[in-house]
Design a protein that fits this description.
This protein is an alpha+beta fold. Helix content is 33%, strand content 25%. It contains three helices and five strands; from the N terminus they run αβαββββα. Strand 3 and strand 4 form a beta hairpin.
Length: 106
């Protein structure tokens, strides 16, 4: 098993345990949603409903809904285009890992 693939698999499993997650779209996702006429001005609050690995070509993806939207429509986007709310355990875990020095790093 490839190390990166195993790490991604664990991340997906950890995120799925905490679903649904509150999040905000990053600028590329905001632009995409505006271009499709889904949102107007401002950045909406998102609710991440599912996380999955779409393979080597696409990477980690998520299915989300717009919190303020009265319709039950959902969208799919790369997980990298979604900022998880900091109060959720996966976001705190990720932030903690980023602060720790990597083994063998100067």
């Amino acid at each position: 098993m490839d190390f990166d693939h195993g790490r991604q698999e664990r991340l997906v499993q950890n995120l799925r345990r905490t679903l649904p997650l509150s999040a905000h779209p990053r600028p590329p996702l905001i632009a995409s949603l505006r271009a499709r006429g889904v949102i107007g001005r401002g950045a909406p609050r998102l609710i991440v409903l599912d996380v999955f690995d779409a393979g080597e070509d696409r990477g980690l993806m998520c299915r989300f809904a717009i919190a303020e939207d009265g319709e039950a429509s959902s969208f799919i986007a790369p997980l990298a285009q979604v900022a998880l709310a900091r109060r959720h355990p996966p976001a705190r875990l990720r932030a903690g890992r980023e602060r720790q020095p990597r083994p063998g790093a100067p």
